[in-house]
Amino acid sequence: MKILLIGGGGRESAIAHALKKSEDVKLYTLMKNKNPGIAKLSEDICLANETDLEKVEEFAKKVNPDLAVVGPEAPLEKGVVDLLESLGIPTVGPSKEAAKIETDKFFMRNLFEKYNIKGSLRYKFFDEYSEELESFIDELTEKGIDVVVKPVGLTGGKGVKVVGEQLKDNEEAKKYAKEIFETGLGGGKVLIEEKLVGVEFTLHGFVDKEHIKFTPFVQDHPHAYEGDKGEITGGMGSYSCPNHSLPFLNENDVKEAMEIMEETVKALKKEVGGYKGILYGQFMLTKEGPKIIEYNARFGDPEAMNILAILKTNFLDVCKGIVNKNLNNVDVEFEHKATVCKYVVPRGYPTNPVRGREIYVDEEKIKEVGAILHYAAVNEENGKLIMTGSRAVAVVGVADSIEEAERIAEEATKFINGEVYHRRDIGKLELIKKRIETMKKLRG
Ligand code: GLY
User: Within this chain, do residues 52 and 80 fall inside the same structural domain, yes or no?
Assistant: First the structure.
């Protein structure tokens, strides 16, 4: 079976590994840089920008695959799924219209309002800087609520700014909103949202337009440095637990988060004819329960590496279930194991990363310690591994306990060298206990 994979990062490496567990899969990958791990698993690769639909079409016609899987969000926004399906290729990923759940933040909030889905928050949409925008922020300031400023469209993870993180206070939030209108960032339209207080977590579902099958809950770590300090990154690492929940979630939180996503899938069916692919809910667990920060129309990166490492069901069967709309007949099962993923990133990441520097990875030693290795933002050039400026290499430990999974992942980082750093605290019990304490305090 020929499969076309779009994307060449850590997430797509996890997808490639999962697909290649099926012996009859022949993989063909289109990616911007040569990811050596994915290249090794592929029969053929095409080095091109994932958003270059002409190149995608050319490669797809050359390969003539039985199925395609799209990794990142940017090509979804361009309509890559619509293109591939017009060529007769069943594709795991939402249509351009359905991907608006990620690519148009106003569409997402509006969907919650229209279909009365719980788990939303106070927000307002603005297409120009106005007195109304200022007074909405002032209203929240008076109530002691900080805000989040979001460009409505995609910005490659660089657009959303949060008071208390990238913004000093609500006054600075006004200035940033003005800047978005002036520069046209993310389409030049703005959502002002109340800032949620609590603990973040991720829930994914496989969706076939009608049904959703949930995967284990995962927690990512967006801050660059240990102790949740520093800039917000794409995610420095993540963990999941053997019971598939997270230590700070109670049964009701789990149920509510799942209901929110089920309601979203139903609403998308009515609104755009259905959502197909991987749906990623980024939640904040607040004292009132789970609330949606945003949706992504794809797997999380690094979260995909946790989930797919313990997927017992053949991922190819899941993909077939998604495109054939019979996910309900696929038993989606996961091993009851803990997983810890740690990203090794270039020095200076995310604000001023070193680029073009070599990174040294001892694959054999990493295998010996029992970790899974995923290359991400690297390019293989003349036999050397060159960092391209984003998260470079990830290692995943899988074990019966979080402590053991963390130990394996941490041990593996010793065999990755260069001008790099990683967070040693991800997966450590001390940090997990901090999350539990935060929720205990908030809930009183
Ligand atoms: N883990 C963050 C993301 O995938 O967007």
Answer: yes
Residue 281 reports pLDDT greater than 90: yes
Please, which residues bridge with residue 144 across strands? Answer: none
Same domain, 217 and 347: yes
Alpha helices in 165-296 (DSSP H): 170-183, 251-272
Q: Which ligand 1 atom is nearest residue 235's CA? A: 1
Q: How far apart are CA 207 and CA 292, in angstroms?
A: 18
User: Cβ(53)–Cβ(83) under 8 Å?
Assistant: yes
pTM over 0.90: yes
**Centroid of ligand 1 to alpha carbon of 135 (angstroms):** 32
Domain assignment present for 441 = no
- Going from the Cα of 229 to the center of ligand 1, the distance in angstroms, rounded, reads 18
Q: Which of 220, 238, 306 to mutate to test the pocket of ligand 1 (most atoms within 8 A of CB)?
A: 220
Q: Is the pLDDT of residue 62 over 90?
A: yes
Q: Residue type for 206, please?
A: F
The confidence score (pLDDT) of residue 158 equals 83
Element (H, E) at 63: helix 53-63
**Is residue 301 lining ligand 1, measured as CB closer than 6 Å?**
yes
In this structure, are 406 and 303 located in the same domain? yes
Domain assignment of residue 98, yes or no: no
Mean pLDDT of 224-238: 96
* Cβ(16)–Cβ(37) below 8 Å: yes
